[in-house]
């Protein structure tokens, strides 16, 4: 919720979903050598649909990272707050454009409120992450389109406009971050009517910044259809 302000020193609230997962098994080998290859890798998708916006790439990297922490017995040496950055850095090497929130949700698990205030990020090297009681959430529907797409391509142009100081992008991202602050409050109050309003406003701002073509007609149809009956939380 209140995506994508995590890339712009904002705030978000995210949750992990147990229905979808990535599993990695690490075994020592004297013979097997893994070399980088531009077209093939050692990954196959199972429960997480490829390019469905369900954070499949970060889930695989996160699971691999957890394997390495345990294999080398260094989990206690790597603070939980910095693990999402390490996971994201690995994805950046692969050319993936993304923010931290998916990785934080996967590292912490459950429902997490995230504050990416620039002062905190510069001083601490990470944001402020607060796990929340999952029972604060109302019943939710998870809906996604079957046609795959790469969300990283969507972020590229808006990111550049933000870096260039575009006043529309800057003010819209600030409003998205403030919506998350309000969302944190209304979740604690279990004020779901106001929560729906905040989520809908978030979608309006995303559509304003990224445009309908970037978000995709199937996604817009799903959301506009569901706004008539239920609130939709984007993953």
Automatic annotation (TrEMBL):
Pfam entry (one): GHMP_kinases_N
Keywords: ATP-binding, Nucleotide-binding
Residue ranges of the TM segments: none
Domain GHMP kinase N-terminal, first and last residues per copy: 51-110
GO molecular function, one term: ATP binding
Record Gene3D superfamilies: 3.30.230.120
Protein's name in the database: GHMP kinase N-terminal domain-containing protein
Species this chain originates from: Zingiber officinale (Ginger)
